[in-house]
Specification:
This protein is mostly helical. It has one domain. The chain is built from 10 helices and no strands. The longest helix has 37 residues. The chain is globular. The relative contact order is 0.11. It catalyses: a very-long-chain (3R)-3-hydroxyacyl-CoA = a very-long-chain (2E)-enoyl-CoA + H2O. Belongs to the very long-chain fatty acids dehydratase HACD family. Its main location: endoplasmic reticulum. Keywords: Endoplasmic reticulum, Fatty acid biosynthesis, Fatty acid metabolism, Lipid biosynthesis, Lipid metabolism, Lyase, Membrane, Transmembrane, Transmembrane helix. This is Very-long-chain (3R)-3-hydroxyacyl-CoA dehydratase.
């Protein structure tokens, strides 16, 4: 007996999912490109100018990505909920508990520019890849970038996140003695968290690029 053809409701749901994810990914690719454009435009003015030009937009874009945890949880995308939540939530903590809460320790640090540049470059490529891959149109160069850039960008991003969080500890003590221990705990979590994220991407790279080489 042959495989049953999808029913019309199933086909409609699948088409709606692809359309939604295509628009979602293209939107976020454009938003992160806008952040990157602002970084490049403000860079000649120094670290403070980069912060002023990008912080609000980058914080807003990153906060909106909380919906990706829901995407994974309900099965809209086939991504591990834990890994997705780890990446998204740590970034949201960074933009609100560090950037927004303690701009005095963030604005004049070179780590901020490095971090927002790493995020913008990595995510503009990632979202563009995801949008095109939904239709089988992702070119080989884009696939390679998606699964190779993390080797350099992850250490830069993770290191910058860690440093900015560390710099926020001193000013946070002036608000409440409870905050510094929480921040130190978060810093410690970067060790297992970074290992989890990095090894996950290495496995994904082998799986994706390895399968493409075998298919040639």
């Amino acid at each position: 007996m042959g495989a049953e053809k999808p029913t019309r409701p199933a086909q409609s749901q699948s088409q709606a999912r692809v359309l939604y994810l295509t628009l979602y990914n293209l939107t976020f690719a454009a938003l992160w490109l806008a952040v990157l454009y602002r970084v490049l435009g403000a860079a000649p003015g120094g670290k403070g100018k980069v912060f002023d030009a990008t912080e609000g937009l980058a914080r807003g874009v990153q906060t909106l990505t909380l919906i990706e945890v829901l995407h994974a949880a309900v099965g809209i995308v086939k991504s591990p909920v834990g890994t997705t939540a780890l990446q998204v939530v740590t970034r949201v903590i960074q933009v609100w508990m560090v950037w927004w809460s303690f701009p005095e320790s963030t604005r004049d640090s070179a780590a901020y520019g490095a971090l927002v540049s790493a995020w913008a470059l990595a995510d503009s490529v990632r979202y563009l890849y995801l949008a095109m891959n939904l239709h089988g149109l992702a070119p080989g160069a884009l696939v390679w970038l998606r699964y190779t850039m993390f080797y350099a960008l992850y250490p830069v991003g993770i290191g910058a996140e860690w440093w900015l969080l560390y710099r926020a500890i001193e000013p946070s003590a002036g608000i409440s003695p409870v905050i510094p221990p929480i921040f130190y705990f978060c810093l410690a979590l970067y060790i297992p968290g970074s290992y989890t994220m990095y090894t996950y991407m290495i496995k994904q790279r082998r799986k994706t690029l390895g399968s493409k080489q075998k298919s040639k």
